[in-house]
């Protein structure tokens, strides 16, 4: 997909996930909106995938370590045809498999996550297997910035560098917020780039809501032989809804009818703009 | 009925009240002050509040250090992570070193509903009760939660408490009753069968008792709020006097309340016993009521089970 199409797709995914959360009256809205651009870049352009063969051995792997923000992922997997779109209506309902965290009973999900601080270690294991088997697939792991407070993240960081996993790409959704407020108030992280560099990773900082930068960086990664790459994706929590951006309680706020209508209006205007731009080209 | 106050709210209110005159009381949170309803405490007593970020192992270690230095730390963190992720810190830093740490597991059982198995806490009783010296408590309603919180402040030693997320129906008329750690409460007396429950399932057992009474069955209901140290005397007495027992728990049937009761019954006074709880599988997604119904943690199912045991 071209950049302009990816931008339009991300706007559509945001609308889909808002409708889904509103319908289910449950969900992690803020973190799902902040990572929607990252996931769109990965799933529609960067990753080597085949929705018809979700377990194809050569596929690139994606692990949502910040599993609570699964809503964008459910919408993307449905849109890419891993399962029927109508199933999104069952999100969080009794007996569903589309629960509030990744669930590998659903095609397209590799591993069950939801307890923070597990994803990177799993990804290290996958990247190591890819190397040992000479398969060459890449592993992408998306973490939260609040999640960085878990010690297990750093245990895995050490192992990733130790085994020279240059097929491993860690991405931190650096939206600056967690549940109780700003990350720097709750448990300071900065200088986050220097910490990861000191652990032996190749660190790149980008605007994680800018599709050009995302595609360029993710496609090129890993860029340093013998080192895993860590992308600090600076994002805005609840990105795309003017009145929700950077507001902490939107972490798991479910939009009211009015809020949903207003958000959809904003996003459809953005979407229409991209569609027009796409046609002009 | 109609209670709108969640147990987590009661713990915050009670600690806030006691912390004004007891400066050693401290509350710790792991990006969980909202879920623990501890926001007001953090605001009112910033000097007695510590935020550790999303780091459940660290929160227990830090608390053990605080306790070793004379503080009375109350750790408030989701039950699933607090009980399982930090279990080694609980075993070594709290229990083995005998530090005075109170671990409050919030949103326990299946109260996180559709968030799935990572967020359900239905193995916590199995692991915590296997640790020597650690007390394990499940308060049943807001009144019991208040009395328990007061008792915890004066109790020397490690304790794991598990509470749910939403307000629960009252089982006591007021907080004006005798709450003793390790001493079960007989909520209804009866002679044909005994229901033993803890935490939110006490309400379910009481509702089953009403249905059984209508069916002409005299049913005893025991609120086993302390899983450890277990009130063995109450269990043996119930086995001897009623001859049949059903346990009801919001926990895996492996290693929880039912297993604890079974250990006592089989060794001291074997009688027929049935365990109602979550089977050995990732619990189905849904709201508490839906999940309870699905697994038979309901007054109707318990009534039928009791009638079956009575041969009726
Ligand atoms: C081990 C663990 N502890 C606590 C939680 C509860 N929790 C869910 S989301 C969240 C905040 C996450 O913040 P961050 O990593 O910054 O993610 P984002 O802001 O992108 O949503 C917390 C504490 C959890 N899921 N796992």
From TrEMBL, chain A:
Q: Does the keyword Lyase apply?
A: no
Q: What range(s) does the Transketolase N-terminal domain occupy?
A: 10-262
UniProt entry tagged with the keyword RNA-binding: no
* Short name of one Pfam family: Transketolase_N
CDD domains, sorted: TPP_TK
Query: So which cofactors does this thing need?
Result: thiamine diphosphate
The UniProt entry, under InterPro entries, shows:
THDP-binding, Transketolase_N
Can you tell which superkingdom this protein's organism belongs to? Bacteria
Keywords per UniProt: Thiamine pyrophosphate
Please give the PANTHER family that the UniProt record associates with this protein: TRANSKETOLASE N-TERMINAL SECTION-RELATED
Per the record, the similarity remark reads: Belongs to the transketolase family.
Name by which UniProt lists this protein: Transketolase
Q: Which organism is it from?
A: Paenibacillus woosongensis
From TrEMBL, chain B:
Domain of life of the native organism: Bacteria
**Keywords, alphabetical:** Thiamine pyrophosphate
Matching Pfam families, A to Z?
Answer: Transket_pyr (PF02779), Transketolase_C (PF02780)
Cofactor entry: thiamine diphosphate
UniProt cross-references to InterPro entries, sorted A to Z: PDH/Transketolase, THDP-binding, Transketo_C/PFOR_II, Transketolase-like_Pyr-bd, Transketolase_C
Name all Transketolase-like pyrimidine-binding domain ranges.
5-171
Please report which protein family the annotation says this sequence is part of.
Belongs to the transketolase family.
Q: Protein name, please?
A: Transketolase C-terminal domain-containing protein
